[in-house]
Write a structure and sequence with these properties.
- This protein is mainly β.
- It is built from 3 helices and 15 strands.
- It has one domain: Mitochondrial biogenesis AIM24 (Double-stranded beta-helix).
- 10% of the residues lie in helices and 52% in strands.
- The strands form 2 sheets. Strands 3, 5, 6, 8, 9, 10, 11, 12, 13, 14 and 15 form an 11-stranded antiparallel sheet that branches. The protein has a 4-stranded antiparallel sheet with strand order 1-2-7-4, with no helix packed on it.
- Strand 1 and strand 2 form a beta hairpin.
- It is globular.
Length: 230
């Protein structure tokens, strides 16, 4: 694929990488930037906002919808600053009539030339992935930004490659994938391992160095506990 991290449609910069990546985008006059809902931190007064939802209300309660705000520089060029919810790194790619798939919490922002679709994984893939029941399909021409929980590593795949489901952030079209258990059903429920994604083909996979679920298990013993004085 000709996908590149260097080329861009809008001028942008990253601050505070890689731990708490913060994105600033300059929107030219009359242009629009699509941003994940609740991620806007600051913006110039030349920019107006309107909200949209991808997937539709009929899919809202399945988790198969994505709320996106559109920011348009109607009164002159302006800057918008974006802070994703997860503490971690952020990446930019320029799609040139190409497609990339994101896990359901990775999307941050994109230009209007990028079509955003929620994509049903199927019952088995969705149920066992622990990453929700859909992927986000991003295709077209323009800028795309996505984020991680923890650090970010890009891996070139040529053949077969296995990644733990919770570490997958994104992958390029052309890679086939299957959700598999590793080590049998006992490993699935008792080892903390067991569910992986096996990629086949040629492309790129982005992985994150941390998962939310293991972190929650790590902090669980430190939670406040009400003392029983009876």
């Amino acid at each position: 694929m000709s996908m590149t991290e260097e080329k861009s449609q809008f001028d942008y910069r990253f601050d505070c990488k890689p731990d708490y990546a913060f994105l600033t985008v300059n929107i030219p006059q009359g242009e629009t930037l699509k941003v994940e809902a609740s991620s806007m931190a600051t913006m110039d007064t030349t920019i107006n906002m309107k909200s949209k939802m991808k997937g539709g209300f009929g899919r809202l309660f399945t988790g198969e919808s994505l709320f996106i705000n559109e920011f348009t520089a109607e009164h002159g060029a302006g800057e918008i600053q974006i802070a994703p919810g997860a503490p971690g790194d952020m990446e930019h790619v320029y799609l040139d009539n190409e497609t990339i798939y994101l896990q359901n919490s990775a999307y941050v922002a994109s230009t209007l030339g990028i079509e955003i679709e929620t994509k049903w994984q199927g019952l088995m893939k969705g149920f066992f992935s622990n990453e929700g029941l859909f992927l986000i399909k991003c295709s077209g021409q323009g800028d795309l930004w996505f984020n991680t929980y923890g650090g970010l590593i890009a891996i070139d795949v040529d053949g077969s490659y296995v990644v733990d489901n919770g570490h997958i952030v994104a992958f390029t079209e052309g890679l086939d994938y299957n959700i598999e258990s590793i080590g049998g059903m006992k490993s699935l429920f008792f080892s903390g391992e067991g569910l992986v994604c096996r990629f086949q083909g040629k492309g790129k996979v982005w992985v994150q160095t941390r998962q939310v679920s293991p972190f929650l298990w790590w902090v669980y013993p430190f939670r406040p506990v009400k003392q029983d004085n009876g």
